[in-house]
Amino acid sequence: MTCMAAAGAATPAVADSVPVGVPLDAVKTTLGVDTPRVATAVPVPVVGAPEVPVHHTGDLLPSPLLPSMPITTQLGSTLVGTPVPNLLGDPKTDGEGSLESPATDVLARTPGAVVGAPLTMPDGSNYGIPNLTTPKLGLTAPELVGAPSALLGLR
Predict the structure, then answer these.
(1) Residues 14/30, Cβ–Cβ less than 8 Å
(2) Measuring CA to CA, which residue among 104, 101, 94 is closest to residue 38?
(3) Which residues make Cβ contacts (< 8 Å) with residue 78, sequence separation at least 6?
(4) How confident is the chain (155 residues) per 10-residue block, as mean pLDDT?
(5) Of 8, 47, 64, 112, which one is least surrounded by beta carbons within 10 A?
(6) Do residues 20 and 41 lie in contact, with contact meaning Cβ atoms separated by under 8 Å?
(7) What residues does 99 pair with on adjacent strands?
(8) In terms of DSSP bridges, do strands 37-43 and 17-22 run parallel, antiparallel, or are they unpaired?
(9) pLDDT value at residue 15
(10) Beta bridge partners of 122
(11) Hey, which residues does 31 pair with through a beta bridge?
(12) Quick check: 149 and 101 in contact, CB under 8 A?
């Protein structure tokens, strides 16, 4: 039995980030001062497929044994604006300061593990019995790639 979606039904969408406005109106009404405006986005991490382990000639175990996992997200755009009164000591020079950061993609990879077996491949000179060897153990380095930037302004 198959299930069919109703006509016009909305399908769920995957968002890179969720926009968030920071409510600071209560501070303005309570203290009577101009408050900054803050708008940003909360990143939503998306886990990708792990890298495929590869079998190398002469190794009993695949490499890496524990693959690294890629995680991508988008740092949403952020805007912070605040009034700057009496910039040069004169009310005519009131302005607004701003800090703006555009959206940027970020990729992170978890560390992986490389493990070598304590046995060699079957040895023909030893009647096909594997020899003992020193096991290998290592970690792949975690990775973080992104290019966030910001622009500071005064109007």
Answers:
(1) no
(2) 101
(3) 38, 39, 40, 41, 99, 100, 101
(4) 43 62 80 83 88 81 87 88 77 81 90 87 87 88 91 83
(5) 8
(6) yes
(7) 80, 152
(8) antiparallel
(9) 59
(10) 130
(11) none
(12) yes
Query: Is there a contact between 43 and 19 (Cβ–Cβ < 8 Å)?
Result: no
Q: Is 134 exposed, middle or buried (0-12, 13-18, 19+ CB in 10 A)?
A: exposed
Amino acid at 108: A
Separation between Cα atoms, residue 102 and residue 124, nearest integer Å: 63
At 126, the amino acid letter reads: N
141: tokens are: 């380095």
Find all residues with CB under 8 Å of 5, minimum gap 6, and list them.
11
Q: How far is CA 62 from CA 52, 56, 97, in A?
A: 9, 7, 55
